[in-house]
Amino acid sequence: MAGLRVNVNVGVLGHIDSGKTALARALSTTASTAAFDKQPQSRERGITLDLGFSCFSVPLPARLRPALPASEAACDAGPEVAEPQLQVTLVDCPGHASLIRTIIGGAQIIDLMMLVIDVTKGMQTQSAECLVIGQIACQKLLVVLNKIDLLAEGKKQAAIDKMTKKMQKTLEKTKFRGAPIIPVAAKPGGPEALETEAPQGISELIELLKSQISIPKRDPSGPFLMSVDHCFSIKGQGTVMTGTILSGSVSLSDNVEIPALKVVKKVKSMQMFHMPVTSAMQGDRVGICVTQFDPKLLERGLVCAPESLHTIHAALISLEKIPYFRGPLQTKAKFHITVGHETVMGRLMFFSPTPDCFNQEPVLDSFDFSREYLFQEQFLCKDLAPTDSGEADQQADQATEGHYPQQQWALMEFEKPITCPRLCLVIGSRLDADIHANTCRLAFHGTLLHGLEDKNYTESFLPKLKVYKLKHKNGLVERVIDDYSVIGRSLFKKETNIQLFVGLKVYLSTGELGVIDSAFGQSGKFKVHIPGGLSPESKKIMMPVLKKRGRAGRGEATKEEEGAERPEPSQPVTLRLTFKRYVFDTHKRMVQSP
Q1: Fewer beta carbons within 10 angstroms: which end of the chain, N or C?
Q2: pLDDT by residue (tens digit) across 340-352?
Q3: pTM higher than 0.85 for the full model?
């Protein structure tokens, strides 16, 4: 009778030619249909072009057995049952810079990450990017220093010690500080060497993996969702979709949907690394066979329980900037958006809480449509870039004083619709950047909180999103009419329809509150009503302006008269108009706080 098998997914990531595929081959006993660069293009170019999967099994370490669910632990109690096994599924990710989107897709389905470093070269551009992805998507890491066979025999240990210290220093600033580092030679002599030479350090690596692996929490409940990375046909059987189950479970004869194609199929048979199974659950790597489906229609994507997923045209996300990305995240900028195995172009609009809510704790499982949010020209962070917009500078005032919001969001609009679950990981990058430049192309990561399914979401949905721009206008008091009225100027252009602003409050630099009453003439001037009246001090400041203008037509005033009226020159009195304009308000209304 077959024993219990616990599956853990281990990612093999690193720079191109660091020996990842050779390491996976040295570790593996059972290769899947997608392992070890079986694609003709991969063999021809000598690099991994796609995710490769293989596995090896070891007896389940005693320290992990208490972590098994009670029902499963009981399964291996009987004498007839074989010893429970730990199945380690290796996800070999490509290291070439142009294939970073495939790496991101792979990282989201792994429980532990092996970062493979060529010991003769150290950290390289793509190994750094893989480390960044690991910090976003993984909780545990171990570093493999590969190709130690290339080191001079007399200096081998010194070179390994030196590179170990370098890697420890690199990891110090990450969440993987103190992660184990182990030297190996996965393929002594290089790719062309004979198979007779045994790999070095592999048994020690397996022992290290056994000590580092923990049993991930797997939940068979909830809707079935599987990330498919390969699809192919078997003559006389049907079409096989292989991938990793992200949530829920699946059994023989279940109906599953390919949501991107709106196709529902029945599960005819299932295998896990060539072993037939009747069911599989979250975390398992499985091949599902269906009939009458063309494999060319689905290279990779999602398969789910019928009607459990929806296709979206835009989304609201909570996000964080990746600190290694140089330059600002600007509103209206385009990024490559990776969700699962899909990468599409998307345009972003950033927004934050209102300044009085900057310190509120982040909420990462929902979006509150009842709240108001403040539009941002760019993501607020310590390395804020100067902008041409005075308005953006005013909005960023709080941030430049060292006060940043605990959480920020973006409206993400896709160039083509995508199918994905709610609360999934989103990574934004600039994959069009120079792949030879020593810069991080990964810009931000976040969580998808709300997807917009309606194609006409700009009309049907966005007006509900209360994101506003805070507008400021400054003008001057030109003269006083009476104790309750002044004439203002320099607040509006000559062609502005001042009638739109009638009733809005303005504040005088002397402290009074005024209300825009009407236009005054045709040159952009306007009349302001002061409900509480001008204070005597304010009148003293403004009256010389009135007197001077009044005397202008009657000739020059004598110096004595001027001196008697007010010895000091008058200060200009400013008017300040502040209002909100909601970004998605079709009527473009101006709103002021009560």
Answers
A1: C
A2: 767 899 999 999 9
A3: no
